Amino acid sequence: LDKNEEAIGVLRRISSTSAIEDFESLEELLILLYNNKKYDEVITETKKILQFPDADIKSIQNIIAKVYLTTGRYEESLELLNKVLEQCPDNWYLKQALAQANMCLNNFEEAIIIYERLIEKEDVSKIQMFRNNLSTVYCNFGAYLYNQHRIADSFEKFKLALTYDTKNPDVFYHLAICNL
Q: What is the value of pTM for the model shown?
């Protein structure tokens, strides 16, 4: 077994023998399972954790939404993220995940609105990250439009992508592909 598998085994034993309140071990287990791409096990473990009376439901739902995003279950992720955001509407991390889910579903305008609002309202230290992510949304929007044979519209989106991140390599890649 590699070290991650050993750690997963140890955390499983700890969580099965310790008090219900030992959420740190369970959270570590979820992180290890997620990082080792054991997504079905993450969902199984989160469902177990949700049965505990003191479980941090919002945090667990966020983990489930992240698994849904990673595994291409975008509609489920979008639904769950909207539900969790009703409970904690100021959580930038959840909003960013919501934007990503929208982008994956080709809801580019919605993803753009979310990132623009984050740029307006969030801490200055996060703005560049949001700008880079917004650039990615515009880039993907441009590629989508290009595949729809809307060439002029696609180039406009690529230009907008570069206004948010002048070094976004994906934009240059797509522009090169479009000019072949």
A: 0.81
Percent of the chain whose predicted confidence (pLDDT) is above 70: 89
Token pair belonging to 45:
């473990």
pLDDT in tens, 58-103: 778 888 888 999 999 999 999 999 998 998 898 898 999 999 999 9
Is 20's pLDDT higher than 50?
no
Chain mean position to CA 50 = 21
Cα 59 to its chain centre, rounded Å, is 14
Q: What is the pLDDT of residue 17?
A: 58
